[in-house]
Amino acid sequence: MTGLSGKVALVTGGSRGIGAAIARRLAGDGADVALTYASAADKAQAVAKQIEADGGRALVIKADNADPSAATGAVEQTVRDLGRIDILVNNAGIFTGGPLEELTVEQVDRILAVDVRAVFLASQAAARHMTEGGRIITIGSAMTERVPAPGMSLYAMCKSALTGLTKGLARDLGPRGITATVVHGGLIDTDMNPADGPNADLFGSVTALGRYGTADDIAATVAHLAGDAGRYITGTAVTVDGGFAA
Questions:
Q1: How far is CA 245 from CA 126, 203, 241, in A?
Q2: How far is CA 71 from CA 118, 188, 218, in A?
């Protein structure tokens, strides 16, 4: 497939899980892909090597989104090394949970920095370089619509902020022909949330389909939004959750 031929994409947190699947899918559709990692350099390089082995072009960037300069720096390096940026996928994120009364200010500040501030800064930086047809796609969570258990208030708050940001970006950038969307994933089988984990049977049964999804399910939706078929989709959320929030 070459639907994204000539395009350049940046996928934050692209070394594993959902981010890696998105990077591989966009590259498979023809895009040159930059991907960031915070600590797993070997995994990021493995994703890049696979993309290159399949005939694509990949750039690996070290960037910890807890650092405000890292989010903007990754965009600037992508433009500098790959020549442009057409697609930004804000995927990097962390999870912080626990009893409400025990969460610390430091925990609140860190997750807001990584899951919200960095998304805003990367989107702002990318918007400065994007031309008509640009795409800003953010990975959120179905917890914006349903919080299944106690201890997830902080995470749900951060992911809910991404919906408001996406709507604002759509209004700010729509006149320039740039779209903004958020993909709310549900129970996705990754290293951080394996489908064979201790609570998998309980959580999987909550979905309408009765099972976990895969990282490729999210990647397919991102590819749709990034391609020509997504040109009239903006300012909205697309939920890929197997009916978790049904």
A1: 31, 12, 7
A2: 6, 25, 22
Number of neighbouring beta carbons within 10 Å of residue 146? 14
Is the Cα dihedral 202, 207, 213, 215 positive or negative?
Answer: negative
Residue 155 annotated among the catalytic residues of the structure:
yes
CA distance 117 to 109: 10
User: Which of these is catalytic: 37, 155, 212, 232?
Assistant: 155
What are 54's two structure tokens? 């399949």
Residue type at position 89: V
Give the up-direction half-sphere exposure of residue 228: CA atoms within 13 A in the CB hemisphere: 8
What is the per-residue pLDDT across 77-135, written as a single tens digit (0 to 9) for each? 999 999 999 999 999 999 999 999 999 999 999 999 999 999 999 999 999 999 999 99
| 188, 20 contact by CB (below 8 A) | no
d(CA 176, CA 245): 33
- Helix axis angle for 17-28 and 215-226, nearest 10°, is 40
Distance CA(115)–CA(92), nearest Å, equals 7
Q: Helix H segments across the chain? A: 17-28, 41-53, 68-82, 105-112, 118-127, 153-173, 200-206, 215-226
Residue 107's contacts (CB-CB under 8 Å, 6 or more residues apart) are 96, 98, 154
User: pLDDT tens, 136-193?
Assistant: 999 999 999 999 889 999 999 999 999 999 999 999 999 999 999 999 999 999 988 8
- Within its chain, how far is the Cα of 45 from the centroid? 19
